[in-house]
Amino acid sequence: MGELGFMGIPFPEKYGGSGGDTISYALAVEEIGKQCGSTGLSYAAAVSLGASPLYYFGTEEQKMDHLVPLASGTALGSFGLTEPNAGSDAKGTKTKAVKDGQEYVISGEKCWITNANFARTIIVTAVSDYDENGRPIISAFIVEKGQKRAVHYKSI
After folding, report:
1. At 129, which helix (H) or strand (E)?
2. CA of 82: how far to CAs of 1, 17, 26, 143, 148, in Å?
3. Which residue range or ranges hold the Acyl-CoA oxidase/dehydrogenase middle domain (predicted)?
4. Residues 59 and 102 in one domain
């Protein structure tokens, strides 16, 4: 699908995309899903969850470094939200991110993350602080597989 430009349908060519629109992307998800539901889901997760947050919220540098490979189809993305005791309820996130100098140390457990074993880039959610009422502030971190000290994971 990457070679055919499917991974970049909703993203501008500037970022390695195909320059399509949301309707074209939705039609692609629908047609792929008609043939194989699992493939449609994996495709939608890679684009909507793994790449779109970078496009909508990333800095220009993050887009060039991380979105371009995802949108051009040379890498796969994933989104790490789900946890064993919280499911996909973001408010229940227990994974922590603690600032250590210029870096964050992320510790916690994620599960059932679509494409995680194959993804080069994973957007990982973690509690990075608390507001004045004690409610968790959840941040999203870009983690590259193989990044020194970034993450340790095991396949199951």
Report:
1. strand 121-130
2. 26, 28, 24, 16, 23
3. 78-148
4. no
pLDDT of residue 149: 54
Residues, the chain? 156
Q: Is residue 130 part of a domain?
A: yes
Percent of the chain past pLDDT 70, that is, above it, reads 94
Coil, strand or helix at 30: helix
Residues sharing a CB contact under 8 Å with residue 57, sequence separation 6 or more, in sequence order: 140
Furthest-apart CA pair in the chain: how many Å?
49
Cα–Cα dist 98/148, whole Å: 17
Which residue is listed with tokens 């493939």? Answer: 39
Contact 110, 95 (CB under 8 A): yes
Task: Tell whether 151 is covered by a domain.
Answer: no
Listed residue (81, 69, 79, 80) closest to 7, CA to CA: 69
More confident residue, 79 or 154: 79
State yes or no: pLDDT of 75 exceeds 90: yes
